[in-house]
Amino acid sequence: MEKGRSAGALLLLTSILGWVGSWAYSWVFLPHVLGTCTQGSTDGWTGSLIFYLPISWVFVSLALLGRRWAGRLRWLALPHLVTFAIGAVVIWPYLWGTTILGEHVCHVRDGGFTDLSADFLQRLWAPVQLVGLILLAVVLVRFWRIPSAREVETAV
Fold it and tell me: Do 62 and 20 contact (CB within 8 A), yes or no?
């Protein structure tokens, strides 16, 4: 019995760590705010796509380990309201300007840079971020909805 409790406690702590770490998810949108576009540099966008986003999803995955404690842990998801607000403001211009129209991310952000066009990773940035936000919303809904009696039985 003690082994089961310690495993459960470890899962609970891992889930809490996952939620706290997942709060950094909004950092994937920082290039829009903090990027400089010096000479058309897209390093911030590329870094957020191949570094921050995967790390954020590792934390979200760890948070999912605590599904059986969703009633207690769901409050740790509230900071993601900020993530959704930031994402809603940041993603749409890039989805339209870069993904659909093919404009360089620096053109969408600052104007100018009309002689540069979007490469594959730039065009991919907004759709991948949008899919990430949708998946995050699914995770949050799973934590916030009331579990069925069958789910409660299998969790215990």
Answer: no
State pTM to two decimals.
0.81
HSE-up (13 A, CA, CB side) for residue 123:
10
Judge whether residue 152 has pLDDT over 60: no
Half-sphere exposure of 122 (CA within 13 A, CB side): 25
Q: What share of the chain is helix, strand, coil (3-state, %, to 5)?
A: 80, 0, 15
Of residues 110 and 93, which shows the higher confidence score? 93
Q: For 71-92, what is each residue's pLDDT tens digit?
A: 888 888 889 988 898 888 889 9
Question: Are 124 and 49 within 8 A, CB to CB?
Answer: yes
Check if the beta carbon of residue 131 is closer than 8 Å to that of residue 145: no
